[in-house]
Design brief:
The structure holds 2 protein chains of 2 kinds. Chain A is mainly α. Chain A has a domain at about 10-170. Helices cover about 80% and strands about 0% of the residues of chain A. Chain A is built from 15 helices and no strands. Chain A is flat and about 75 Å long. Chain B has a domain at about 1-30. Helices cover about 80% and strands about 0% of the residues of chain B. In chain B, helix 9 (about 210-230) runs parallel beside helix 11. The chains are: A mainly alpha, B mainly alpha. Chains A and B meet through helix 1, helix 2, helix 3, helix 5 and helix 13 of A and helix 1, helix 2, helix 3, helix 11 and helix 12 of B.
């Protein structure tokens, strides 16, 4: 933990600039609330967005009595998007909650309508992905706020994964695993544009797609041993370990880190990609100090362990050995961290 | 004294006051090391135990048919004795002791399942869970561990579920639609027990996650029962009354008495979602056919936006007011 003045000294910037940013945080907290209030508003906007999509589809198919509603739905989507973006971008500082909720719902539903309309017209999920990606990219670039970027980036990523599965693209798991790498990079080396919602959507793409596709009976489509995914996860583990290493000075902690490296390498090698992806999210939560990632990672790990039982890729004996080996490694690491903490306290 | 937070760093990055290469170092400066060290210790222990226990369960599932009854009992009983003695030796005041006690409690259930399998007792599944809950009750009473109480609650909840499905509903002692309400009531009683214990000074029960999980899951049961009535799937009007009563009681406690804003927000979210459900039902009751469905969707959209906006407005106004009062 660090105070504004101390951080300013370390960064060699004017302390008043950091105070201004912290004041903006307070203002933003009053305007958009803490994360759980934003999560409630995301759910509200998502439900309203579904109703609005229903309106768009019903309006074009019933009112105009058209057999091929692809283009009319796209046009309705474009009109909604223009209205939503106008409401969000005009007088951005003085937005009321109702106006913002309305605008976010309009823009999110519009993105889905445009993607759905063009996808339906061309009978191609890839066209739908591109149609969703264009407004999502514009929103990430120009529109401030978490809720809309979360909804549009999640929609684009969801459509992309659906396209991979439906079109039976080879190396699906590898491609989906790349999302984890991109999400991690965006969170650790953020660009100047606010892309945290997109980064978090990318981070959870692999584990959440496993859950959704598993519940649809398509689980095996994105599972598998995937050596390239394993290699990527090991590289990510090592990268995160190096990140932690940079902040360590005591010898005990460095010994713990060496053990952590061995554990990380072994876990990446023995655990299936789904399991190591969730463990990576937990390590990233620790590196960033993000409670949201920590809670989500622990919940996903609990779900993953219960679901791993039904994985047809390995026999129960193999799965049992994998889990016991991973568990023992984690307990060894725990024992080392306790030892290091005790040694430090004694000093 | 105010500390810089992670979200501030992202804002500083947007303002180009932190470079991309410095960002990682800045994260390390801003992070609360004490909190995250403790978290890492607990997470490693919990994840390690969870993986090992899952691995043991998977191993039994694989090898089950080939093992002799003696081998089955021997392995489980040795593990049970080791974990139980370990828990007593370490003490439930420590994290390792708590983890060992939870592991021993899980193994009691495994042992009961094996007894049922080997001796073909013919018992219903609910009897296993009832016996399991009763056997771990003394440990739980003497433990000072929220995790152990939570384990007992999960077993008792499963016992109530299986009893309803296997006995109460087939015997027509209970209607299927009332099951969610009764399970919700069980969870509400557990929440009440938790709050009373914390008020009485049982500080080991005070971990806030116990409140949020019980409140979230308990309200979910009442919500589902009330939605079933609204959509006329099944259910009774009293489901709605119970949901409203639980909502009101929660508001009084978590807003009026304890000022727990996240818990209050959770209740508001359930209230708002229920209003959306009621709106959806009413709109499509009136406008379900032909061209009217277009207006139905338009009305429903406006209704949902109004409810979500209303929730947002209420929460933000109250949050700002709380922050002002706290200075």
């Amino acid at each position: 933990m660090i105070e504004a003045s101390a951080l300013a000294a370390k960064l060699d910037v004017d302390a008043s600039l950091i105070s201004q940013v912290m004041a903006a945080r307070d203002q933003n907290l009053d305007r958009s609330g803490p994360w759980y209030v934003q999560a409630i508003l995301v759910i509200g906007a998502w439900i309203a967005g579904c109703a609005l999509i229903g309106f768009g589809v019903a309006f074009t198919t019933i009112s105009f009595n058209v057999d091929e509603p692809g283009i009319p739905i796209t046009v309705v989507g474009l009109v909604f998007l223009a209205c939503g973006l106008f409401l969000l971008l005009a007088d951005a500082e003085a937005k009321g909650v109702f106006r913002q909720q309305f605008a976010v719902t309009l823009a999110a539903a519009a993105t889905a309508l445009i993607a759905g309309g063009l996808g339906f017209e061309t009978e191609s999920l890839w066209v739908a992905v591109i149609a969703a990606m264009v407004p999502a990219a514009f929103i990430a670039w120009k529109v401030p706020g978490f809720i809309l970027q979360t909804l549009t980036s999640a929609l684009t990523i969801g459509l992309f994964i659906a396209a991979l599965v439906v079109e039976e693209v080879p190396y699906q798991l590898t491609i989906i695993s790349l999302a984890l790498v991109i999400g991690t990079v965006l969170l650790l080396y953020p660009p100047r544009i606010e892309l945290r919602p997109t980064a978090i959507s990318l981070l959870f793409a692999a584990p959440l797609s496993t859950i959704v596709l598993g519940s649809l009976g398509l689980g095996t489509a994105v599972e598998g041993s995937g050596w390239f995914s394993r290699a990527m996860h090991i590289a990510l583990f090592l990268w995160l370990v190096i990140t932690i290493w940079r902040g360590l000075e005591s010898r005990e902690k460095q010994i713990v880190l060496i053990v952590l490296t061995i554990v990380a390498l072994t876990l990446g090698a023995i655990m299936p990609p789904g399991g190591s992806a969730v463990l990576l999210i937990i390590v990233l939560a620790y590196v960033l100090g993000s409670r949201l990632l920590a809670v989500a990672g622990i919940l996903l790990e609990a779900y993953y362990l219960s679901r791993f039982y039904y994985d047809l890729e390995f026999t129960l004996l193999t799965k049992s050995m994998m889990l016991v080996a991973a568990g023992v490694l984690l307990l060894v690491l725990w024992a080392f961290t306790m030892w290091a903490a005790k040694r430090e306290a004694e000093k | 004294m105010r500390f810089v937070e992670l979200s501030d760093l992202y804002r500083l990055r947007s303002a180009d006051l932190v470079g991309a290469s410095t960002f990682r170092d800045a994260v390390a400066w801003v992070r609360d090391d004490g909190f995250w060290s403790l978290w890492a210790h607990r997470a490693l222990l919990a994840l390690g135990f969870a993986h090992v226990l899952s691995g043991i369960i998977f191993f039994f599932a694989y090898n089950w048919a080939d093992m002799s009854p003696f081998a089955k009992f021997a392995v489980i009983e040795v593990a049970l004795v080791v974990t139980a003695v370990g828990a007593i030796f370490v003490g439930s005041g420590k994290l390792v002791g708590q983890a060992l006690l939870v592991a021993a409690s899980v193994l009691v259930g495994v042992l009961l399942a094996v007894i049922g399998q080997v001796y073909q007792t013919g018992a219903d599944v609910f009897e296993l869970f009832v016996a399991w809950a009763l056997l771990i009750l003394p440990w739980t009473l003497f433990s000072r561990s929220a995790a152990q109480w939570f384990t007992l609650l999960v077993v008792a909840y499963t016992a109530a579920c299986t009893y309803s499905i296997q006995v109460a509903i087939p015997m027509k002692w209970l209607e299927a639609e009332s099951t969610a309400l009764l399970l919700g009531a069980l969870l509400t009683v557990a929440l009440g027990f938790r709050e009373t214990a914390v008020q009485a000074g049982f500080s080991w029960m005070a971990s806030i996650w116990t409140r949020y999980i019980l409140l979230f899951v308990g309200m979910a049961h009442f919500f589902v029962a009330a939605c079933a009535y609204v959509f006329e799937l099944d259910g009774h009007f009293y489901s709605v009354i119970i949901l409203v009563a639980a909502f009101a009681g929660g508001i009084i406690l978590y807003r009026g008495r304890w000022s727990d804003f996240p818990a209050f927000s959770l209740l508001v979210a359930y209230g708002g979602l229920f209003l959306m459900v009621v709106g959806g039902r009413l709109v499509f009751e009136i406008m379900a056919d032909g061209d009217a469905v277009v207006f139905g969707f338009a009305l429903l959209t406006l209704w949902c936006i109004s409810v979500a906006g209303g929730m947002g407005k209420l929460l933000l106004v109250l949050r700002a007011s709380d922050r002002r009062s706290a200075g």
